[in-house]
Each structure stands twice: as C-alpha cells, then as structure tokens.
Please model this.
Amino acid sequence: MEENIIECRNLTHYYGSRMIYENLSFSVPRGRILGLLGKNGTGKTTTINILSGYLQPRSGECLIFGEDIQRMDPLTRRRIALLIEGHVQYAFMTVEEIERYYSAFYPAWNREAYYELIRKLKIAPKQRIARMSCGQRSQVALGLILAQNAELLVLDDFSMGLDPGYRRLFIEYLREYAKAEAKTIFLTSHIIQDMERLIDDCIIMDYGSILIQKPVPQLLDTFRRYTFRLEAGAPETLPVDGKLYHSAVIRGSGETYSFADEAYVGGWLTRSGIAYSDLKSEKMNLEDAFIGLTGKY
Ligand SMILES: Nc1ncnc2c1ncn2[C@@H]1O[C@H](COP(=O)(O)OP(=O)(O)OP(=O)(O)O)[C@@H](O)[C@H]1O
Model:
C-alpha cells in the first residue's frame, strides 16, 4: 500500500468570523511532488502554516509521518524542511559561513547539495548575504533547504524573486534531486508554467474548498476546452451545468471547460434549446486548465 507522508482530514479554518475553507481533505504519498494551486487569497499560505504547525485549524487534523503536527515529536519534525517566504536569517554571514552555521543543527546535513546548487546558480561563496539581491537570497535559502536532507520539503512560494533562467535551473535541479532521493514535496507557486515542469500531482483550490486533486498528466489528458459557434439570436449567457466550468459567450462564440466528452456538451446545448455549430474541443497546458477550472477573475 502507498504510504501517505501528509494526511489532512476535514481541515476547517476561520480567521475570526471569516471562513477560509471547510472540510479540506488531502493526502500526499511518499516520493510525490504535489503543487497547491489557487487564486490569491484562497488559503494556500494558510494551509502551509497549518502543515508547519504554526496555525491551529478550527477543526480537523493534519498528520505528517503519522503524527499530529500539533503534538509532533521534535525528532519527527527534523524530517521536515520548511521554506516560508524564502528569507534567510543571519544576513551578516557569508554564503560559506551560513552553510557551516546551519550544518550544526541538522544531523543528515548534505553539504554537497548546498554547494552543488550554489555552483549551478553561480553564487560566490565569500559573498555576504546582506549585500545580495532578493533573488540571490532566495537561492541561498533554497540551498539551505536542500542540504537539510529532509524526507519532506514544504515550500511556500519557492520561486519568489528568481528570474526565469534561475527558476528553470532550480526546478530541473529540484525535480532531479527529489526523484533521485525519493523525497516528498508539498509546494505552492503562482508560476504555473514552472509547476507543470515540476509537480506530479496538483490540488486546485477555489474559495472555501478544493476543486480537484489529480495527477497532472491525468488532468491534462481529460480536461478540455470546448468552443462552438452560436447562431443568431442565441442568448448572451449560457445555462449553468454541474459538469461544465465557466461557460461564456464571447463575441458570438461560446466556450466552456469540462471533463465530460463532446457528446455531453452537444447534449447540454441541444437540451437548452441553443442552436450551435462547429463544436470543437482542445487539450490545454496546466495554466489554461487552471484558468478553465477557476475562472479568469
Ligand atoms: N492572520 C490573518 N488574519 C486574518 N486574515 C488573514 C490572515 N492571514 C490571511 N488572512 C486572509 O485569509 C485569506 C487567505 O490567505 P492566504 O494567505 O492563505 O491566501 P493565499 O492563497 O496564500 O494567497 P496568495 O495567493 O495571495 O498568496 C486571505 O483573504 C487573507 O486576507
């Protein structure tokens, strides 16, 4: 049986009287890279804060390595590497000094993983962190995370401040590292093109709940964008259907997104008395699928 490294059951969180989500359940099996995607304010950072034990949800439980995060043994906690907001403390140190400083705290410290990334990203070891740019500081923070050699990596907005070339480098390095060492990763990012290259599974959040949790290839294989021409006199809005996402009329043409097949979409239009022609479907990349599921605004 697959072992779940993270298991969250029925998480409900409120800030004061404001509900962020209710009954969120998900799991992350060992060795998988899972990306949490969602629009601004859907609760991704909140979820990371719950996973890190910093926030206590109103109800529900969050188990990591089978232990409740709120009562976790410090020895178990050591198996988790956390990147929150990508900042490095002790900015007065140099790239070399901070590596030596951190290494004292982590028994499984992998110096080579740190220096391999530092070399790939072309950072000078004698450079003082306080004098680095925001993106360069993120690079050091990522190196310190990888060197912890934890079994689980939790990364919030890991690509903050990195330019496209460094992002690409880091993503390729991270994926290779995770697969070679059978690491489990839970992360968030707004840069969905990056996620498409990196993650195995995605959770897409809407306000208040999870829309889908699926392996990315399965999502891209089964979720389609449909377009059709509307005949004159067709309504300006399309009827809502539980299996169709964000159906809209744009300049005389209709569009909708769905996991259902073409016959279903044709049947929906016919049943609704809408005259149409030229019904077509297309597969999408992860960014377009994300927009199809969550809407444009
Ligand atoms: N400490 C807090 N007190 C009150 N409200 C909060 C607090 N932290 C976050 N919120 C609110 O909760 C909602 C979810 O915030 P969260 O930071 O988890 O979203 P997010 O999905 O990470 O957003 P983004 O994509 O913008 O980073 C937001 O509307 C935010 O304003």
Remarks:
- Residues 66 and 251 are 53 Å apart (CA to CA).
- The domain at 4-218 is CATH 3.40.50.300 (Rossmann fold).
- The first strand starts at residue 4 and ends at 15.
- The mean pLDDT is 92.
